[in-house]
């Protein structure tokens, strides 16, 4: 039979109730400093550890408190995470300690790691200009950290400023480095680039000319990104300000 007026009104009321419930749920979401709400994942336990969400760092990356005592970072990866490479980098002292990796969603993994110590910032958020002595010290430290990863037999595949944490010791002029975001990382000539590289970013990302979708990731590709991206001051805008790259691995 054709819907009656009563049926139509009933459907409208049901939809209205659903909207009210959604609005109430939205109001319960945490509010950030700029007044926007953040929708945290429903994941609350990983590897037996209880997670309390504190803030969203970027898409699919969250600052969390674990077991009410340990400040950590939770990353939701859309693919298998380079756990072995991350642990090798930690053993070399150039990555945060990895706490757990568990399956999440259809093909992804939830990655829990310790938060970087105070003072670390992403390379593309550093507070000095390219003519500052810390710039060359930072590039040298980044090169050294990546070479340590390579010496362990692993490659990263996405050595951009957004995936490098740096902390300058102004007294000694040294720069400490931590590598993060090991989504694509693994054994050289075994892991591959999962998608075509985006060469049209703003600013453009200087991928090695040989990088293509499904091509094998090589140590020389990592070093190319350092020399043509990190060293060349990529991800900076005129005046010394920093252009923050959006996203991480998986968004080349």
TrEMBL record:
InterPro entries xrefs: Kinase-like_dom_sf, Tyr_kinase_AS
Record-linked Gene3D superfamilies: Transferase(Phosphotransferase) domain 1 (1.10.510.10)
One Pfam family it belongs to: Kdo
GO molecular function term, any single one: protein kinase activity
Protein's name according to its UniProt entry: Non-specific serine/threonine protein kinase
Taxonomic source organism: Bicosoecida sp. CB-2014
